User: Which sequence fits this backbone?
């Protein structure tokens, strides 16, 4: 069966209510395992929702799925059991040991909903066949659990940027290329986005990879009447920059340079040690300051792999600025955080919000979710306070009425 032959009548109506599925691509990774463990703890009443924006006053009135109505599944290309991965995150200080002890008995049920993902290094068939398999896994998950809708969230490793191809501008041409087993026309993140849309699901890219950011895939989202959002979750240094940079502009202070160094280990550190992968991350991070300061600014940025840091991340920034009468001043700051602990609650927030947007009939890019991203799709706004206001206003209007 080719991707052009699949039926799309499974897509639920905007009015349908029921439990929501969260399908994680990269489900056995650190961010996903932390999100899964955290959701199980929230469902069991064993943890509070600190870090989850959707449980704050800003969004508490939005019509969102309850934690107890969220079911998790996913794809991954590795086979490390969730329980073993969670134990390693306890050892590294990411997941508290009492939390894992409280939810350990629930992990096997999630394990049963994990499937083998797409690995471009080993796949010999066509991408059309891969997409059919991935979409079929998601559909089976939705049907088996009686879910009203599923949100697919990409939390896998960062990919290199892709070179433009004509097929990326034409959905029909792209679909034809997918049938050629010798043409891996799409990067893995875009294969996942295509499969999500094919299954009638919303899609979120928490990484700086290409994902749904191709004109042909935007066309597909419109055709399938599904929403998508991204890209690259804003959890640390960039979060801080989007809060602080507006301070300089609103006080008429001239920023001369803003240098940054990021030190991290774990899987992300190893992935970003490859300059090809680092290009995607650096591109995502580097556009923020010019947008916020209104001009280009000298802003060298480095990412260094320090394996012993594991999931702990440190970012150091040095800001040189000019005040009244040309007097030079500076600000130095250090951000130290646990990457997966910062990211996981945002993944859960995005699942709730994207599901609510789908229910309300939102189609295409959800630019109002730019609050969560370094490089927000559909929006040039980067200032955190303004993004928060946009998000709050929009989410408060998700009352089940069609957004289009």
Assistant:
């Amino acid at each position: 069966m080719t991707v052009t032959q699949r039926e799309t009548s499974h897509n639920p109506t905007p009015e349908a209510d029921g439990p929501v599925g969260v399908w994680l691509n990269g489900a056995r990774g650190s961010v996903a395992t932390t999100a899964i463990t955290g959701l199980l703890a929230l469902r069991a009443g064993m943890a509070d929702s600190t870090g989850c924006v959707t449980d704050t006053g800003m969004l508490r009135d939005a019509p969102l799925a309850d934690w107890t109505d969220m079911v998790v599944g996913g794809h991954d290309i590795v086979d490390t059991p969730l329980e073993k991965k969670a134990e390693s995150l306890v050892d590294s200080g990411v997941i508290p040991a009492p939390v894992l002890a409280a939810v350990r008995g629930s992990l096997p049920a999630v394990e049963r909903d994990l499937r083998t993902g797409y690995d471009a290094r080993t796949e010999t068939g066509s991408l059309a066949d891969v997409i059919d398999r991935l979409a079929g896994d998601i559909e089976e998950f939705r049907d088996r659990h009686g879910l009203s809708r599923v949100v697919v969230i990409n939390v896998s490793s960062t990919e290199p940027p892709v070179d433009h191809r004509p097929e990326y501008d034409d959905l029909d041409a792209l679909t034809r290329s997918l049938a050629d087993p010798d043409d891996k026309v799409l990067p893995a993140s875009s294969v996942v986005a295509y499969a999500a849309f094919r299954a009638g699901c919303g899609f979120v890219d928490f990484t700086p990879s290409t994902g749904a950011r191709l004109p042909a895939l935007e066309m597909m989202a419109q055709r399938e009447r599904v929403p998508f959002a991204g890209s690259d979750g804003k959890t640390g240094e960039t979060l801080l920059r989007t809060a602080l940079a507006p301070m300089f502009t609103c006080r008429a202070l001239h920023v001369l340079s803003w240098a940054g160094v990021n030190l991290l280990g774990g899987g992300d550190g190893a992935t970003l040690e490859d300059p090809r992968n680092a290009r995607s991350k650096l591109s995502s991070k580097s556009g923020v300051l010019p947008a916020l300061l209104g001009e280009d600014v000298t802003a060298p940025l480095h990412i260094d792999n320090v394996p012993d840091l594991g999931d702990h991340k440190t970012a150091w920034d040095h800001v040189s600025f000019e005040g009244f009468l040309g007097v030079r001043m500076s600000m130095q700051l250090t951000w130290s955080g646990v990457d997966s602990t910062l990211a996981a609650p945002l993944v859960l927030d995005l699942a709730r919000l994207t599901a609510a947007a789908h229910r309300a009939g939102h189609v295409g890019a959800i630019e109002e979710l730019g609050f969560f991203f370094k490089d927000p799709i559909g929006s040039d706004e980067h200032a955190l306070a303004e993004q928060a206001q946009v998000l709050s206003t929009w989410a408060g209007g998700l009352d089940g009425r069609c957004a289009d």
